[in-house]
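Q: For a teaching handout, I want to show students what a protein-ligand complex looks like in token form. Below are the inputs, and the small molecule is fe (ii) ion. Please produce the holo structure.
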Amino acid sequence: MALYAIGDFHLSFMFHKPMEVFGEEWKDHVSRLRQNWLARVGKEDTVVITGDHSWGRNLRECEPDLAFIEKLPGRKILLRGNHDLFWDAKKTFQLNQQFAGRLEFLQDNFFAYEDYALVGTKGYCDEGRDEPKQVQKLLKRESARLRTSFELAKAADYKKFIMFLHYPPTSIKEQKSVFTRLAEEYGAEKVIYSHCHGKQRYGDSIRGFFHGIEYKLVSSDYLAFCPERILEHTLLG
Ligand SMILES: [Fe+2]
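A: Here is the structure, written as tokens, with fe (ii) ion included.
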């Protein structure tokens, strides 16, 4: 009954898309990921997969990728990444209905893990591609989604939170952001994120403890495609 996290599978079963063009570490990443998952994760465990599941441009193109994830042992909770074009932000409720009992989709909602609420959203960090006005708009939208997730969990009387983002919680070398402030405001114990790939990017944001909160990067290449344990089984019984 442990909680794990890992992100950025970048699957593409429908179309051949070799990932080793992004670096040697991506060679055979799907079979390595599967082996590591099977060795670590049991059917009683929960895994939050922090976005960028598939290269597919719509749900039909993502079907075999989502089916691969579905077949892995454990309860799977998916977060939305910047590549997840199949996931219309306004239709998370429909995705949760369509995949009920198979996969769960975390956005504008929360999921329970023992006495913790798992909250989250895609997030946003400024990578220098967007105009300042657009940066502000995206930060506002994503922080509002995160607040909704926290508020729903609070209204359901949860007092312990693990917060998930796809993007790193801060822009490169920034010390704090609207996301770190929300984590502090609601008292999240940990902030888990991915999106950063390659040695040059792993240090882009906070890792370790900051203002009493533990920040963890769980990009699949950073973890050598091995799901990271976030919490042990804590409840008795
Ligand atoms: Fe990403």
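A: Two things your students might notice: Residues 71 and 102 are 9 Å apart (CA to CA). The longest strand covers residues 116-121.
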